[in-house]
Amino acid sequence: MGYVGPYGHAETRILHLLAQADKKDSPKTSTYDKYGWDVDDDNNLIENEKEQYWIEYIKVRFHEDEISISQIARELNACKVPAKRGEKWSHKQVKRILDYD
Length: 101
Description:
Blueprint: H1 9-24, E1 37-39, E2 45-47, H2 49-64, H3 69-78, H4 91-99
Antiparallel strand pairs: 1-2
Helix pairs in contact: 3-4
C-alpha cells in the first residue's frame, strides 16, 4: 500500500472531497484559465472576442496550413499575442486549445 500522509485513507478522501467542493465555487474551469473565455461577476463564462480570434488562427494554421504546434506557439510569441495569464505561448498551451475544440 502507498503512502497516504499524516492522515488515514478515510481522512484523506474527506480532504479530497472538500477540495473538489471548493473548486466548484471557483470561476476557473480547471487548474488553468480557459483561453477564449472570461468570467463575469456571476461566474458565468463569457466569450472573449480577441482570444476567440486567436483560437481560430490556431485551428487554421494547424488543420489547413499543417503548421506544427510548436511553430504556432513561436508565431504567437513573435506576434506578441499574450497567453491567458500574459505569459508566452508553449506547445502545451496550443495543444490544449486544439484538443478542447
